[in-house]
Design brief:
2 domains, Rossmann fold, Tumour Suppressor Smad4, six-stranded antiparallel β-sheet, alpha+beta, 281 residues
Length: 281
């Protein structure tokens, strides 16, 4: 029930376009936070072939959390604010084409990951983007422009934090605006934070971004949209299947855009090829 689209319209289209020769289906509306994960897990246990998330990254997160490790496939009809995993997997945003993608029933396995045991399938993070995610969760009007407005409001006063990162026997200390744990390549809306990330390589791309002077921030935004953020000296990348990050203080993180109280010590680990997702041909 979250997101920005007309769910009744999607319901009508499903009745019109879903291939009833292939599928018997049921439409269920979520009633509270966490309900989608419960429904998805029940469907996997019952042996259903497909569970479709109709929504944004939060709905995809809960659906994936319920299906991870099972043979039940996850479908996506993207209708949220960012739709990061849907963008990465090239899932159509045209509703008719998204349903046709489900009818074709072609799937691929992707990695998922956990942050202190909390599931994510697209990106998680600490620092500035977690701060924005926390504030965005309080906003009634969703969508890209609401998110963008928050970024503009929060950025000038946000101070970079110091983090200790431990991975593969190494320890480094960095002062950073944000640290992103990227399974796919983007936050959403084609804002590409980790251009080289692949969701099926058994690795996370850890993006460590320094705070950019305010005068250069618009350029950084353009680099995000043109898949060139890795060309700037403000960003450093680590590829690893597992990492522990120690924050200065007990601050919120986010998993797939949803704010999370995770504590000072963040343990992030990949779960290779653990989720079946329906994708276009």
């Amino acid at each position: 029930m979250s997101g920005i689209s007309n769910k009744d319209r999607i319901k009508e289209l499903l009745h019109q376009k879903f291939d009833r020769k292939l599928f018997k289906y049921e439409i269920v509306f979520s009633k509270y936070a966490g309900h989608v994960e419960e429904l998805s897990r029940q469907a996997a246990v019952a042996g259903h072939d497909l569970v479709v998330a109709v929504g944004g990254d939060g709905s995809v997160n809960e659906t994936g959390a319920g299906l991870v490790g099972s043979e039940t496939r996850m479908g996506i009809i993207p209708s949220g604010s960012g739709n990061g995993l849907a963008h990465y997997l090239n899932i159509p945003f045209n509703l008719d084409r998204a349903i046709e993608c489900l009818n074709q029933f072609r799937s691929r396995k992707i990695d998922t990951a956990t942050l202190n045991g909390h599931f994510f399938c697209n990106v998680a993070g600490a620092g500035f983007d977690a701060q924005v995610a926390t504030e965005f969760a309080k906003v009634k009007r969703r969508g890209f422009w609401s998110y963008f407005k928050l970024v503009l409001e929060e950025y000038p006063g946000y101070k970079a934090r110091t983090y200790k990162l431990n991975y593969q026997g190494q320890e480094i200390t960095r002062k950073a605006l944000l640290i992103t744990f990227a399974n796919s390549n983007q936050f959403g809306n084609n804002a590409i934070i980790a251009p080289d990330a692949k969701a099926d390589d058994g690795l996370l791309d850890i993006c460590i971004m320094s705070k950019v002077p305010l005068i250069e921030a618009p350029l950084l935004g353009q680099l995000l949209m043109f898949k060139l953020i890795n060309r700037t000296h403000y960003v450093e990348y680590i590829k690893t299947p597992e990492i522990t990050v120690v924050q200065e203080a007990d601050e919120n993180c986010h998993v797939d855009g949803e704010p999370l109280e995770a504590g000072k010590v963040l343990h992030v680990k990949v779960n290779p090829l653990s989720l079946n997702v329906v994708v276009p041909h």
